[in-house]
Amino acid sequence: MSTDLTGRVALVTGATGGIGAALVDRLLEAGATIVGTTRDAAKAERDDRYSLIEADATDRASAARVVEEVERRHGAVDVLVPNAGSGTTRTLPDTTDEDWDEAIAVNLTAPFLLARAAVPRMADRRFGRVLFVSSLAAFTGGAIGPHYAASKAGLQGLVGFLASRYAASGVTVNAIAPALITGTTMGDALPDDAAAHIPVGRMGTTSEVAELAVAMLGNGYLTGKTMLLDGGLLAR
Ligand SMILES: NC(=O)c1ccc[n+]([C@@H]2O[C@H](COP(=O)([O-])OP(=O)(O)OC[C@H]3O[C@@H](n4cnc5c(N)ncnc54)[C@H](OP(=O)(O)O)[C@@H]3O)[C@@H](O)[C@H]2O)c1
Q: Are the beta carbons of 83 and 13 closer than 8 angstroms?
């Protein structure tokens, strides 16, 4: 049976990126109403179940503002996917203070601020779904750099803390950790032979990420988990 999120309101950051756009498509199919964020208002598109808000994740005030705006438009945030992500490929010596601060701001602080604004109100309503977007880099270090790996690893602490505190309130908290996904800025910047060492022999697709993400969002018994979606790179 396909996931049914009819009537649920989802907030997806980075909604116009590769994975974000695929996720919006799958959430629409599952019946949700979606508000996405982007830094570029020119990308704004709106229909009766999908609208966009302009927000930059490095602006700390934007998280509470976005959550309030979604609640003003639709009455609640039932589903939160802090999907916006940033990371420029660096070696350790090349990683500047600015690289570090940006990766932590976008990949870790913004998800925390969004959860802090949305989760207590989910608990009041006795329903909530939070899905952080981690990365295989959180476990292996990955190829992008120390700033990116550390920012994604920090999400694991958030998953554990929030899942244990809010399970009894009807709020599930999980993460999906993809690797080497085509149709994304990060994935498409990789060298042509990037797929050579992936056990399944190819890179993953944004629709495969979205499919698993929506299945996780639809499952009320799944909480405190990170699902790796990596073509078999890390068997465990
Ligand atoms: N692609 C992969 O192989 C891979 C693997 C593991 C994890 N991930 C994670 O998957 C998530 C989605 O990334 P993607 O692969 O779909 O990459 P993408 O196509 O580059 O999309 C990234 C999205 O993040 C948003 N973003 C970046 N910096 C932002 C900022 N300062 N404020 C607000 N939004 C910002 C962008 O929004 P704008 O519309 O404003 O540009 C864009 O929509 C990220 O968290 C990424 O770390 C990707």
A: yes
Residues 6+ apart with CB under 8 A from 88: 99, 144, 145
Pairwise CA distance, residues 148 & 206, whole Å: 20
Determine the distance separating the centroid of ligand 1 and the alpha carbon of 85, expressed in angstroms: 4
Q: Helix, strand or coil for residue 98? A: helix
Query: Which of 219, 206, 55 minimizes the C-alpha distance to 133?
Result: 206
Mean pLDDT by 10 residues, the chain (236 residues): 88 97 97 97 80 97 98 98 97 98 98 98 98 98 96 98 98 98 88 86 97 98 98 91
- Full set of structural domains in the chain with CATH: 9-229 (3.40.50.720)
Q: Which atom of ligand 1 is nearest to the CA of 82?
A: 45
Ligand 1 surroundings by CB, under 6 angstroms: 14, 16-20, 38-40, 56-58, 83-86, 106, 133, 135, 178-181, 184-187
Both tokens of residue 10?
């989802």
Alpha helices in 36-179 (DSSP H): 62-74, 97-104, 110-125, 137-140, 146-166
- In this prediction the pTM is 0.98
Three-state DSSP state, 31: coil
Has 148 been annotated as catalytic? yes
Distance (Å, rounded) from C-alpha 82 to C-alpha 67? 11
